Amino acid sequence: MKRLFSLCFLILLLGCISNIWGFIINTNEKNIENSQNKIDHQIIEVKKATIVPKIDGKMDDPIWKEVLWHGFDQNWGENTYTFNDFFGRYKIAWTPEALYVLVETKDDVLHDHTKDPLRFWWNDDSLDIYIDANNSGGSHKHSNNAFAYNINLDENVVGIDENENPILRNDHINMKRVTQNDVTIWEFEIIIYDEKFKDGHINDPMILQSGQKSGFAIAYNDNDGYSERESLIGSVFIAGNKKSKKLINADVFCTIVLKE
Predict the structure, then answer these.
(1) What is the domain count for the chain?
(2) pTM here?
(3) Which of 77, 169, 192, 235 could tie 159 with a disulfide, CB 3.0–4.6 Å?
């Protein structure tokens, strides 16, 4: 009888331990998605522009002569790519009113198969810009905790609303794209909003200031004429597999620090 009781007690104890361990695992997974305690990494200091860049797709503004290039060469997709397929780099600056990004890409085939900007936008040649205004990290799947912008070749800006529906956000970004042969210059003026942003409402943009930290990443969708995207090349290192899926968590964005 004692042996039977001991056996039943052991089975019950193991069941409790299993339930507790499962709860811990599920809680940790949920915390990973909803983390609001980002650890700064791949830190980039961003210089303030004393003269606001003219958004004309050129590189002759004073600030672009003062700041360094940053590369983006991280393979975020499932397919490999070579530098013969794509090369990209960017510069970044700020004023109190906006963030400014200058991008140079080298791509011998620019493919724009889907004319509707709200359908399959990721399969055409385009740029992705990710911004987490207050550098809080965490998921932005059902919120505006961070913003993911896709800028396609016709200069439409596609975002995702809180219901996971695509939406045009052309009023967030003023841009100009200039292509000569296989080199394209993209110049952006990005109005920054925080997690309080609500689509369909009047929203006040953030006033940027020295010392502010934000999450940032940039990527290029490369397609040389196929029905689906061939490569996704990003600016930050992301560990593990299925890197593009991890972009829903702003923890993977690098940290930019605004400096005078």
Answers:
(1) 2
(2) 0.85
(3) 169
